[in-house]
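Recall the central idea of this unit: under ordinary conditions, the amino acid sequence of a chain determines the structure it adopts. In this exercise we apply that idea directly, starting from the sequence alone.
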Amino acid sequence: MSHVDITGFDLTIDEIVRVSRQKTPVSVTPDAVERMEAARAIVDEAVARGDKVYGVTTSVGAKTGVPLAPERIGEFNRRLLLTHNVAHGPLASPEAVRAMMLVLLNSMASGRLGVRPLLAERLTAALNADRQIDVHIWGSMGQSDMAPITDLALALYGDIELQAGEALALLNSSSLALGTAALAMADLQRSLDLWSLVAALSMEGFAANPSIVSEAALRSRPFAGLKRHGARIRHYLDGSYLFTKGGPRHLQDPLSFRSLPLLHGTAADSLGFAYRQVETEFRSSQNNPIVSLEDRSLVSVANFDTVSLSMALDIARLAFAPVVTASAERVAKLVDSFWSGLTVGLIEEDGVGLPGFNGLAQFHKAITSEARLATAPVVHELASSSHSNGNLDRAGMAGLAARKTAEVASLCRSIAAIELLVAAQAVDIRKATPLGSVTSKLHTLVREVIPFAAAGDRVPHLDPLLQHLEERNSDVQRMIELG
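Accordingly, the structure predicted from this sequence is:
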């Protein structure tokens, strides 16, 4: 597919990844344009009648209900954006801004925002021209990305007069949180899929017992994620020495090995739930008021409250806490001669007394600790009745939830890659063959860029492996999909 059609109702995480990272062109469908025109007509009719509509013919927030002079609506819209243009701190990445723009465009296409097609046309043109816009990430409390969205809105629409309700429609958007969340979810999914393959190689490095992925074991706990990842691990190990007599060293391995399909399966099920919630949010309105084409009316709502997004992201992050913890324990066991039965630090003694891969294991533990801390939930939320009318008295913190999820996803990429480095070294030190049908391919892929660390060699650096995995992503995906 050469482009992505925006309808307002069927945007997916995969499409956000394609547009944000691969710069796939976008277009708004004719039906969506007609829907936007019809919705705008409903707004204009309400203004002409003098209806009292929040943010359209009245002010907002602490001045809710204060009527706007018709001749000053344009000025109100401009100044409303400037009033909220207080975002600060680091800038969102270019791909996160593109994701934000796509989510906002999709929301406009639904018609529920009641904005003119002109606003969508400018967003489409900016995306397709890969226009770079600076958006600060601090300033969203999760009841819309109110402050960050003004960076985008002023850059795109600063030279036109926004009409009734359009500034508020932009301010109510949670597009930065949703766009950031979508990219983070895709990265978590990618890491988890790779991790089951990496963990299978760790099992061979440890000489672990493969009974955990037997048909009998997987049948005994009928969870979808467990079945999928357990079956994958078994397939990756097909033909491995682990299935031969004397292959496994123990009847009962440490739980970081023994619980592998349970941990990864639970993470997969939790991630699946979060995926569905996030993609449902793409089909939902975050605006207030909404334009109802069915009833030809404007309805006051609290759709800007994206607690469903925050909760989904909290669940996704929490699911990775035991995944990263178990990875740290597997690495610790592999470099420890007492547990692995291999050389200290997975490197032959050369008389100097260096600790080998133990230092890498310590680094692995450090970033794993960071990831675990970042999995803490944010839906405890921030409550505030500081406004005079007290109507903004809670916040879902969706922006923070999205940033923390992106942080966990980034850390997981490195945590999994370090386990892969250690597993490959352990496999070579153990010298047990054959490896599995797929784990052998993964081992070969690692050795294309990271040589075996013999006595006297330095412990390999992580960056070349990460770059190699990225460059050979299509090959890695084929290995994963064999499961």
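The longest strand covers residues 88-91.
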